[in-house]
From TrEMBL:
Keywords, alphabetical: Glycoprotein, Glycosyltransferase, Membrane, Signal, Signal-anchor, Transferase, Transmembrane, Transmembrane helix
Key word 4Fe-4S present: no
Database matches in PANTHER family: GALACTURONOSYLTRANSFERASE-LIKE 1-RELATED, GLYCOSYLTRANSFERASE 8 DOMAIN-CONTAINING PROTEIN
EC numbers, comma separated: 2.4.1.-
Pathway where it operates: Glycan metabolism; pectin biosynthesis
Species per Swiss-Prot/TrEMBL record: Gossypium aridum (American cotton)
Entry membrane topology: Single-pass type II membrane protein
Gene Ontology terms: cellular component: Golgi apparatus
Top EC group: transferase
Full protein name: Hexosyltransferase
Molecular function (Gene Ontology), one example: glycosyltransferase activity
Tagged with keyword Transmembrane: yes
Signal peptide (UniProt feature, chain positions): 1-27
Amino acid sequence: MSKPPRFDLLLVLLFTVIALASNSVTATPITQQFKEAPQFYNSPDCAVLVDEDESDGEASILCSDQAVHVAMTLDTAYIRGSMAAILSVLQHSSCPQNIAFHFVASATANASFLRATISSSFPYLNFRVYPFDDSSVSRLISTSIRSALDCPLNYARSYLANLLPPCVRRVVYLDSDLVLVDDIAKLAATPLGDDSVLAAPEHCNANFTTYFTPTFWSNPSLSLTFANRKPCYFNTGVMVIDLDRWREGDYTTKIEEWMELQKRIRIYELGSLPPFLLVFAGNIVPVDHRWNQHGLGGDNFRGLCRDLHPGPVSLLHWSGKGKPWARLDANRPCPLDALWAPYDLLETPFALDS
């Protein structure tokens, strides 16, 4: 007995719905829109870096030794966090017009969209977007305890000296899941001494051995890496980096050598952090902990809420699994997420409809 026509029609409709659903998963459109931020002006005692009549004023600031240079990665997954971070930097700066932003985006990303998104919310921002070739690092990445840590762009901080122009000699690197509540110029002015390459808040009471596998510690030729150093944990989401010294010491190659070893012998479990520790731990300039109150995203497995560390706060960092924008959208915020919310530039559906 033949099937009735209506049955065939229902089958066609069913397969159409399945196909559409499948496509929506693989090609999710970008729908986020952001408000324009207020314009922020220098205080009277700020240095004048360029004359207003200079046609290449932006380029001058982006290469000026007197500017505060900030480097961040930029992608569609974390764009909302990046926008909040930029706003917080500008809002608390005494010389916001003297800040140059250097954004690193994947070479496969929609750079024109990212650039237009930044420009529409910050029309007067001094910034440039640099393409990062994912293939340059993807072959070196080993799986870690959280898949988000395996994104090639997460390793871009190791390549800043190559990506940014040689005229940029010092930079403050910032993750996208943080906000500042203090003047970034104070952090940027951290003295690096005669030979240190970078500065960051150190945590010497952390159990340093947990960042590497028993295979690492049981191999004398590997564990002796720290023999003449007092290694301490530091979070790589907030760093002041002397790019000149980085280039002279070819530290990108040193980090890559550890990543190549990791591909052959598993010596760590946690993304891009351990290679930094292997190269720099014990040899950095310590910065006051107020400049990276990190871990506010909770632990890497459950994303449980955390409190601030004791002491003053200049920077709040939602490192860890939970991000404030995701928890706020899910109506399950942690108490400290309320400190991130005022910097959120996302247009609400109500505002888009009005």
